[in-house]
Amino acid sequence: MAIPDYFQRNAIAISQVISGLDEQRLESRLADVRIGVTIGPDAVGNEGRALADLLVRLLARLYPSIIIRGEGAGGVGDEVRELARRINPRVEHLGQPTVEVVVGTARPQWGAARTMFVGSNGWSAKLSTHDPQACGASNNPFGAGLAASVAASDVFRHVFLSGAELDTECEIAVPNVGEWATEGGDIGGNVGSIVLAGAGAIGNAVAWALSRTQLEGSVEIVDHESVDLGNLQRYVLAERNDEKKRKASFVATEFSGRLRGNAHECTLAEFLQKKRHQVDNLVLALDSAKDRCAGQASLPRRVANAWTQPGDLGVSTHDFLEGACVHCLYMPDGEQKNEDHIIAESFGVMNRLMQVRTLLYKNEGAPRDLLTAIADARDLPLSKLLPFEGRSLRTLYTEGFCGGAVIPLGDLGRPANDVHVPLAHQSALAGVLLGAAGVGMCLSGRVDSVVVQYDVLKPQERFQVFPAAKHVAKRCICQDADYRDVYRQKYP
Ligand SMILES: [Zn+2]
Predict the structure, then answer these.
(1) Measured in angstroms, how far is the CA atom of residue 297 from the centroid of ligand 1?
(2) Where exactly are the structural domains of the chain?
(3) Which of 8-17, 115-124, 474-483 has the lowest mean pLDDT?
(4) How far is the CA of 219 from the centre of ligand 1 (A)?
(5) Does 346 or 247 have the greater pLDDT score?
(6) Which residues contact 474 (CB under 8 A, 6 or more apart)?
(7) How far apart are CA 16 and CA 133, in angstroms?
């Protein structure tokens, strides 16, 4: 079968979402899957081209057979067919598709068992399982990027989760765009200088989106690492022969327009020192909370941040003086921990702190994926946790953990050690949203502290937007008089 040689990483990522699916089972599942991509004549513009491009970048990393047709779509069909081959040189282009994605106003070609229609309009993605969806005429890649990510997620759920509910008859807008949303969705202007910290999976998608705008200015791409084979599973810009290239440099080559991409092959700390900590717009696409907080502590004028964790992803923006800063979201251990922090820590799932916080805030029951993660992290049989499914996290904590129902009293202490490998479409979606948030704060010149979360379980109401207040412990750097004074002096 034509699976890519970096396939094992896909298997790890998928097994973290769907338990019991090991590499061998995954391979045999994919043996019968052939994805058709039909590209309509309206996909020749910026939006359609971007949509088809990102969709194929996502699909070609996982599915061994992709059959592409693009009659009437200029050269877009040939372009993305070549692209698929550069991503997975073993990809097959023959056979009868079992699932088809139609981009723009084309009719389906193959009578596949499942057909999804996808289009975009400026800031919005449009999805249907019944009728073709047009591609808009704006120069805005964000709605198209959102559409491609959500469509890839729907293909994934259709293939791997039987009976999964797909996005249909819906228009999903990039959230929190606010006052700088423009008529018709066109965007333009000078963003000045954006510092993109991290050229990993999320950073790749940020650069994918920014490089497809017609904005002016520069993106300073900071990353000291090189691309390894395992990265190819979810780095949307990476092709098979990009292995071993420096991440910052290969991402910078994507920028060929008026928005320049400059590579900085160093750590964020080294970069910030070089810039004497003068950064107007910091976009954090980093894995570790510690690095994100270090970025915030350098007191950039405005910050946007994104994350992925199993079953959840989101983006936050930060007004250092008035709202939550990045530190507030990832307050380090201390004597006055928040309830969510204490609970996530004792569950062993600090990597899911945002999910725990949201569930507590909304007083919702414990979902199965969280229970599974807790069972894994604390080495417990899932059966001990299942009686708490759908019950509040406080109950699970007080009865199960403090009350001894799940783990023996006094046995709290094994550290969280699981390493989360996100799926390609999750990282892509987080990156597209982060890119939009970054452009928004640059063009508007202001930022509010807001957390946007994407709910994979609610197809019709994907985005939840929360204003983010400062940490209640009042011990954060954004509540410290010295830090606040320095910030005010830097940006009078
Ligand atoms: Zn803070």
Answers:
(1) 10
(2) 7-173, 188-492
(3) 8-17
(4) 26
(5) 247
(6) none
(7) 33
Q: What digits encode the pLDDT tens for the residues 274-285?
A: 999 999 999 999
Q: Which residue has the tokens 């923006």?
A: 317
Tell me how far the alpha carbon of residue 293 lies from the centroid of ligand 1, in angstroms.
9
Helix (H, G, I), strand (E, B) or coil at 134: coil
- 76, 44 Cβ separation under 8 angstroms: yes
Strand order of the β-sheet with 170-173 is 66-69, 35-39, 99-103, 114-121, 124-128, 170-173
Mean pLDDT taken over the chain? 88
Q: Could you tell me the distance, in angstroms and rounded to a whole number, from the CA of residue 41 to the centre of ligand 1?
A: 49
Q: For residues 169 and 392, is the Cβ–Cβ distance under 8 A?
A: no
217 has which bridge partners? 259
Q: How many other C-beta atoms can be found within 10 angstroms of the C-beta atom of residue 421?
A: 21
Residue type, 44: V
Q: Which CATH architecture has domain 188-492?
A: 3-Layer(aba) Sandwich (3.40)
Judged against a pLDDT cut of 80, whether residue 422 lies above it is answered with no
298 CA to centre of ligand 1 in angstroms: 13
Query: How far is it, in rounded angstroms, from Cα 298 to Cα 309?
Result: 26
- Separation of CA 105 and ligand 1 centre (Å): 47
Reduce the DSSP state of residue 377 to 3 states and report it: helix
* Span from the CA of 199 to the centroid of ligand 1 (angstroms): 25
pLDDT computed for residue 20 by the predictor: 62
On the 0-12 / 13-18 / 19+ scale of CB atoms within 10 A, 431 is buried
Supply 258's token pair: 């008026």
Statement: residue 417 has pLDDT above 70:
no
